[in-house]
Design goal:
single chain; alpha+beta; five-stranded antiparallel beta sheet; two-stranded antiparallel ribbon; 11 helices; 9 strands; 44% helix
């Protein structure tokens, strides 16, 4: 019995130590791959977050446009067309005038002077060639001799006609240039702020004698009516705007008021009249108060000085 048990133990051990069949079938290189290879981490490649540089975004600048180069290019293109017209006119071909070409192309005034300069250069050769005919050969310059020979096949009349065509082209362009110059809109004056407009205005801020307080003059520009009182001369003045734009201020003077209806009167009893005026806002009521002042009426001059109190401003 014991013998059988020991035999069984040996058999079990053998079975345990025996290599399974699927392992026996594996090749040697496959056996090596059974366990994954752990790669070592290269510490040199690890960079702290604080040391990571942000990528700078490069903004591409828009290419700058060379205005002078553009003008030069357009001028040259116009000149080529005008030169063709001149050549066709010289050959007595039926073609539109240089003026009509300028009008049709609506050439800007900027190009007119430049075009005439180019035509003058183009006109130079026949002009010198014609002049050289009246100069002795031994007295001619090299240029004169070259152009004399170049235009020798033309008669004097033909060269003169050629030059007159150039002159007509120059006149046409100059005439068109004046028309374009007249089309330019008049430059509008820059609007001045009301603060700047009243900056130099001299006026009396308050008066203890008549117990008056001036209104801020910043309200005067573009108003329809202004009432002022001179504490020294006791002159009460009303200013009425001449148009919808209202009364304006320039330096120490009121502008754009109606010289016919803007008048002054001397007040004999300022305390009574001014008190009524300050407590009235209606134009009709103010006119009635004005009519109660019996002194002589004079034309207002628009000047405001250090003795003038601004009483009323109506928008």
């Amino acid at each position: 019995m014991l013998k059988n048990i020991s035999n069984m133990d040996n058999k079990n051990k053998k079975e345990l130590l025996e290599i399974p069949d699927f392992l026996k079938k594996l090749r040697s290189d496959e056996k090596d791959n059974l366990r994954p290879i752990v790669k070592e981490v290269d510490n040199k490649k690890i960079v702290p977050i604080s040391e990571v540089k942000e990528e700078t975004v490069v903004h591409k600048e828009k290419p700058k446009v060379d205005i002078q180069a553009k003008i030069k290019e357009h001028t040259q293109n116009y000149f080529l067309d005008i030169r063709d017209i001149i050549d066709m006119q010289t050959n007595k071909e039926l073609v539109e005038s240089v003026y009509d070409f300028c009008k049709e192309s609506n050439i800007a005034g900027t190009y007119c002077t430049r075009l005439n300069d180019l035509i003058e250069i183009y006109k130079h050769e026949p002009t010198v060639g014609l002049e050289a005919r009246n100069i002795k050969q031994d007295e001619r310059t090299e240029e004169q001799q070259d152009l004399y020979e170049a235009y020798q096949s033309f008669t004097t009349k033909e060269i003169q006609q050629m030059i007159s065509i150039y002159d007509q082209a120059i006149d046409d362009i100059a005439r068109w240039g004046k028309i374009k110059q007249g089309e330019k809109k008049a430059r509008k004056p820059r609007a001045i702020s009301v603060e700047r407009m009243v900056k130099k205005l001299q006026y009396k801020k308050s008066d203890e004698r008549y117990k008056l307080q001036s209104i801020d003059p910043i309200l005067i520009p573009r108003c329809q009516m202004v009432w002022v009182f001179n504490t020294k001369t006791r002159k009460l003045t009303q200013y009425n705007a001449i148009g919808r734009n209202g009364i304006m201020v320039k330096g120490t003077t009121l502008k754009d008021f109606d010289v016919q209806t803007s008048v002054s009167k001397t007040v004999r009893k300022p305390d009574t009249v001014l008190s009524k005026l300050l407590n009235t806002d209606g134009k009709i009521a103010m006119r009635n108060i004005w009519n109660t002042i019996t002194t002589t009426e004079t034309k207002a001059n628009g000047r405001i000085n250090a003795d003038t109190v601004i009483l009323k401003i109506l928008k």
